[in-house]
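We modelled the chain as a single entity of 199 amino acids. Its sequence is:
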Amino acid sequence: METFRQHIEQAAARALAEFPPETVPDIYTVTFRIDSVDQDPRFPYLAIGYNTDGEVRRMLATLSPSEAWEARWSYAYFPPSGLEGVRVAGHDPEHDPAGAQAHRREAAAEGLWYEDGDALTAEEIDRRDELLDRRFHELCVDVARGLHTGGHIVAALGRPLPVILYDMFDPDAMFALTAAANPADLITEFMAEDPAGRP
């Protein structure tokens, strides 16, 4: 039986193959948007996509020079290909029923799953939510690393490219997540705006 980790890994590799061939030469980054259905940590998912140099040039035509970094690296400026991605994987029953089943099965086996109305204290719900959230973020970092070490990015896109990870509800986390997921030389420009000053 496929594990949730295997499911996400395979979905990420498949997503790279779904990037439009005519767009591949213009892609400069793979994007991982970490999210959850209705902001519920029990239903985490990953939207896998990309952004292009052409899109950045289009954005910069209407922005000030001071916004150059944001146009290239901030999810707030990303087009649908980078924000919504080309594939959603995780505990999203509508878009990934197999992933939803695997995640729920494993969360239940680990004693982290709960239903609305279960006799749990608010503290216990918070503890489980925090663990579910942290584990999914760690999984996404591992999956991005695997795209590098497994040669998937080079095989699909012809060259090493960074994977930018971001959580729309924790904007500053994108620097730590991205730093953990990529070779340092691929993310020098991205990390230049890290408020924590990581190299």
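As a brief sanity check on the tokenised model: The longest strand covers residues 27-36. The radius of gyration is 17 Å.
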